[in-house]
Amino acid sequence: MSFKDTLESGKFVVTAEVGPPKGTDISVMKHDMELLKGKLDAVNVTDNQSAVMRICSLAVCKLVLEHGLEPILQMTCRDRNRIALQSDLLGASVLGIRNVLCMTGDHVSAGDHKSARPVYDIESVQLLQVVNALNNGKDMSGNDLKGATSFFQGAVVTPESNPLEPQLMKFEKKVKAGANFFQTQAIYNIDKFKEFMAFARQFPVKVMAGLVVLKSAGMANFLNNFVPGIKVPQDLIDEMKAAGKEKALDTGLNITARHIRQLKDEKICDGVHIMAIGMEDKVPTILERAGLL
Amino acid sequence: MIITKKKDRSKLLKTLEGYNSFYLIGCSECASLCGTGNEEALKEMAEDLKAQGKTVTGMIVPKTGCQTLGTKVELKKDKDALDKADAIVVMSCGAGTQSAVEIYPDKAVYPSNDTSFLGNMTRFQMFDERCSLCGDCVIDKTGGICPVTNCPKGLLNGPCGGTKDGNCEVSDEIKCAWVRIYERQKKLGELDKMKEILPPKDWSAKQGPHKLYTRADAAEGDKKSKDKK
Known about the structure:
The complex is a heterodimer of chains A (about 290) and B (about 230).
Chain A: H1 3-9, E1 13-18, H2 27-36, E2 42-45, H3 57-66, E3 71-76, H4 82-94, E4 99-103, H5 124-135, E5 152-157, H6 165-176, E6 181-186, H7 190-200, E7 206-212, H8 217-226, H9 234-265, E8 271-275, H10 283-289
Parallel strand pairs in A: 1-2, 1-8, 2-3, 3-4, 4-5, 5-6, 6-7, 7-8
Chain B: E1 2-6, H1 9-15, E2 21-25, H2 30-34, H3 39-51, E3 55-60, H4 68-76, H5 79-84, E4 87-90, H6 94-103, E5 108-111, E6 113-123, E7 126-129, H7 147-150, H8 177-187, H9 191-195, H10 215-228
Parallel strand pairs in B: 2-3, 2-4, 4-5
Antiparallel strand pairs in B: 1-6, 6-7
């Protein structure tokens, strides 16, 4: 069953990420894809994540398809103008890529080509509208397409942003612009996430909770201090600390698994999106511990 | 006003190495307020050139360097000094420099400054960028605060996921433009405006080189359109 059908059927979905490597050696990525095959509903392919230049998302999505997994093409507005975005979307469509996650994209100042000229010709809300138009056989200028696309489109939201209201207003705009599903920025506080879900449930969209695996207490502090929109509560940091160096990663995997179980059992959201950030091989372990395999 | 910064002086002197005599042109408007093209800056430049064994044949701080016609008239008075110079160094913005290029097509003209942005002077010689001259103003929809300029991504529909405690993803020293817009519209009871999806910008209005029609051109255009009717 396709990712769209699974999500719409009401089944609790699970997605994870594949980060394209920097360079042409794709052996590790291939190994990870083999490991993940059959265990996920779809795989996000990041688009020059953190503005660091890597293999393009489109090419890796095609590899994901060839490895028997369903890709979600992450598409940011940072590196392409509206012509290139639409052109890449048409390309993705003919390659059999059916899911697209529309994002604005981290600024070039965060990446490894700081002197690059960022594009941002359009942004996430408008990109969602563009995908809608392409699905309806029209380009952004209203020209007819010879053959429409049929994308299932997603967007992102940061439920722990401060101040929150402008983010919620943007969430609403994204729904209006045609988003079918949302994957959130990493969340750690399930009670707070429930508050966000109470708001999100007013809208006819599916929401998947973003989960980032903690590797150490130090990483938790780093996320709190340097990554916008992520807040790891003190009790989780304490739990990681208590685990000690040797058991830290194992504890991190347990926390993620525990959160997945709670989100699923209490029907808090429609699925989870696991961001293992370089530990894609640990995703099956998490799923096993969450009782999903 | 147009904000300019002095070019690295040793690099500039290297660029000017092949010339022996110079005429200096400043600007009494923006470049004077920036301290890059006022009399003091010109004198300093003259000293530096003299220290390199060069001659300065004369200098002027015209009223408005980008006002090509007016500057041409002002420069006429100093014709001899200008003729004696191998090269002209213009200490204004790039527009002023190109006025000199236009007035002196047969003479070498060099800029002493880098032209940075259109800025507001918030304190003495402290400049903030508030307008990017995009040609398609949206601040009627955004509480008078320009997201095209104040947001590094130029977002038109709300903050990105990178905003942290109301600050920008790019720098903690920049307040998120969309948080500012949100706070202002909330205060004014205009949050409804923030809920409206703004369409993609028409960047064709930004495409240069620009030319604004003169009154004569406008009259001519009116005449033509009337004739058509």
